[in-house]
Write a structure and sequence with these properties.
Blueprint: H1 3-8, E1 33-35, H2 40-49, E2 53-58, H3 70-81, E3 85-90, H4 94-97, H5 112-138, E4 147-150, H6 152-155, H7 160-167, H8 173-177, H9 180-186, H10 194-197, H11 199-214, E5 218-221, H12 226-239, E6 245-248, H13 277-285, H14 289-299, H15 304-316, H16 322-353, H17 356-361, H18 364-370, E7 375-380, H19 387-393, H20 400-408, E8 412-414, E9 417-419, H21 428-431, E10 437-442, E11 446-454
Parallel strand pairs: 2-3, 2-5, 3-4, 5-6, 7-11
Antiparallel strand pairs: 1-6, 8-9, 8-10, 10-11
Length: 460
Amino acid sequence: MSPYLCRLNFPLRRFFCTEKNLFELRRGKLFEDTFPHESRNEAAKLLKSKQQCVYAGFDPTAESLHVGNLLILINLLHWQRAGHKTIALVGGATGLIGDPSGRSTERPELANQRVEANTNSIKKSIETIFKNHQDFIWKKGELPPVRVVNNLEWYKKMDLVHFISHHCRHFRLSRMLARHSVQSRLNSEQGMSFTEFTYQVFQGYDWLHLYKTYGCSFQVGGNDQMGNIVSGYDLISKAENVPVYGMTLPLITSESGDKFGKSAGNAVWLNADKTPPFELYQFFVRNPDSAVENLLRLLTFLSDEVIDEIMTKHLQEPHLRAAQQILAKQVTLLVHGEAGLKLAQLATEALYKGDLNSLEQLPKEEIIRLFPGASISALDSSKSRTILELALEANAYNYEKDARTKISAGGFYVNMQRMNNPDQVFHPHEFILKNKITLLRTGKKNYFIINWSSGVTDGK
């Protein structure tokens, strides 16, 4: 637990609240907009009267979701905490079409096998996040389970002529053409393909299918999804003549206006093999003071009152970045569980505080990830060598004379410890860590990893 949490002096369980009225959460700012626009009070009464069903969609355009998708997943978790049924739809079919919303060009066509692999990966990630929430954050008994579905399941069985003749007759071209996502592309140099134009039809039918199959009357999505949500509303209203409700979520952007977690084209992913827990943790630690309060309210389950206390204390000592550490801890715990959070915290202690105990608790593969670009050497620990010989074997220096001069001047480090005697004997029991690794450094950022291959004597 963060030492800052300990200083707050109240039990951790107080951090988490049981949602009763979703429209009152986050002081009424959990949702940005509701459709129909005048239906907010009506929807709120429904949510308080009995269990409802809500869904959100995720297209498998990559093998992993990114932190920009977290807001929607956390919104679904709020519904789950309030006792409602939740559905996460992974668009194995719509991923082949491509959502034009927020894009100035058409998405590249993806191969069927790639979409299938992406779909399976995203499905697993969503299930993991919901399980982590249940096990490590909620911890109050079983919640209604999330249902993860793939819309390819119903489209692959559907007759095309029946779909067009039976369902597409409910869509009006004038309304479809008026969508902002369509208008912006029609007025562009590239224009819009018929494939992309039909996306809103398929997303609209997804909601109809979920309504008829699971009684799903609510849909949530990003604020760029309102047009697609309205398509589903129109279809259900005409085909079933029942009220349904769409909600959009607040937009999170960086200070430069980029989509959250995707600045400069470098997404921060939720899959550990694309963005390790340490990098995810550090992404949130690095968020500026101007953004941290809003992110605490949107991306954690801490109550508003607790966040108020955190920010009051944070503003007294902003240089400690205590609020950012709490944010990073909560998000990493949700995405990667306790094991992932521990790895992230150990890596943070090792890299930024030079903590040797933390370094030797890290698996070899995590150390390699922690120091990207580091040269890796496999050496035999049974061979006798000096510090100078070790540096040369690890290719830390090209020439013996240069190595001797730099080591004597204190520019060479073994496991964060400064060396200044090139003729000092390298003792395995002193310098080889329990994970069979030795970390060397020259200058400020040049790292060399020694992976001891045989005859290793464990460290302290």
